[in-house]
Specification:
The chain has a domain at 53-257: Up-down Bundle (f41 fragment of flagellin, N-terminal domain), CATH 1.20.1330. Helix content is 66%, strand content 10%. The protein has helices spanning 5-32, 43-97, 104-125, 194-207, 210-214, 216-264, 268-292; strands at residues 128-129, 132-133, 145-149, 155-159, 167-172, 175-179, 188-189, 192-193. The chain has a two-stranded antiparallel ribbon with strand order 1-2.
């Protein structure tokens, strides 16, 4: 095969173009600090990077849900603490009212205090978090409890909640945690409704039924208090589960970002060394070109 000057020039230019592309590739990688800058650089790697980015976004969304749920349970815990305190004071007031030596005025004062604690109890159960009632079941925009008067003109509680209406929250793929928002279980103590309880308490205070106050009603007040404490413990268990989910989420997010960095980011020192080697080869090619591409007319004189 006869090697002509034209063939040598074409071969050289083709190799120089290939060398220039390599140099340009390393320049892009060094300037962007990314291993790939467009899908054509490495389609498989780009596909894996996209999958990892999607997983990180999804994980961040789960983290937002978890943190919102944790804040929700913290608000619930504080509300149940206030409700428990009100029920505890109501229980003490009923115990005091069972004393037959009290005057009528003293009984009226106790009744007013119980009415005040009833209002505080309802306010606690109507706690609102970010425009949502934390004990309103799934209908979080409607106030779940209200203080009303019964047929005798005494204060009691009205509840507007469907039973078994907790709020589910997905905290990771296929994993759901129920927020305990069913306020109906707070005013239903073993089948005894708090609205009936308060009606009977005020009726007993008005009639001076000390036996009922010191017996059945005091026991029901104790049961209502214990029920509130139990529900607070359940909320605490949900909080602990959410905290564990948050810890797992953050660990997974760290692992995903580490995997993404391994796929996407360059090793700066290694890449600079490769770039330097390519630049040496490129400069050598340019120097060789001065010998091959001599088209000056002086070469033929």
């Amino acid at each position: 095969m006869r090697v002509t000057s034209s063939l040598m020039s074409q071969t050289y230019l083709r190799n120089l173009n290939r060398q220039t592309s390599k140099v340009q590739k390393y320049q892009h990688q060094l300037s962007s600090l990314k291993e790939v800058n467009k899908p054509s650089d490495d389609p498989l790697t780009v596909s894996k990077i996209m999958d990892l980015n999607n997983s990180i976004v999804q994980n961040d969304n789960y983290l937002t849900t978890i943190e919102d749920a944790i804040d929700w349970t913290n608000v619930q815990d504080a509300a149940l603490g206030q409700a428990s305190n009100s029920l505890s004071r109501i229980q003490n007031l009923i115990q005091s009212a069972a004393n037959g030596t009290m005057s009528e005025e003293e009984h009226k004062a106790i009744k007013h205090n119980i009415e005040g604690e009833l209002g505080a109890l309802v306010d606690a159960l109507n706690t609102n978090f970010g425009g949502r009632y934390v004990f309103g079941g799934r209908d979080t925009t409607e106030k779940p409890f209200e203080v009303i008067e019964d047929g005798n003109g005494n204060m009691t509680i009205a509840a507007y909640i469907n039973s078994d209406q907790n709020l589910p929250r997905e905290v990771s793929p296929g994993v759901t945690v129920d927020l305990l928002t069913d306020g109906g279980k707070l005013v239903d103590v073993d089948g005894n409704q708090l609205n009936d309880f308060f009606s009977e308490v005020f009726t007993a205070l008005d009639s001076g039924d000390y036996d009922a106050l010191g017996g059945d009603l005091f026991g029901r007040a104790d049961a209502a208090f214990n029920n509130m404490v139990d529900k607070r413990a359940e909320v605490g268990a949900v909080f602990n589960r959410l905290e564990a989910a948050k810890e797992r989420n953050e660990t997974e997010n760290l692992n995903l970002k580490s995997m993404l960095s391994n796929k996407e980011d360059i090793d700066l020192a290694e890449k600079y060394m490769e770039y330097s080697m390519e630049m040496i080869a490129y400069e050598a090619s340019l120097q060789m070109g001065t010998r091959i591409l001599q088209t000056n007319i002086m070469n033929y004189l």
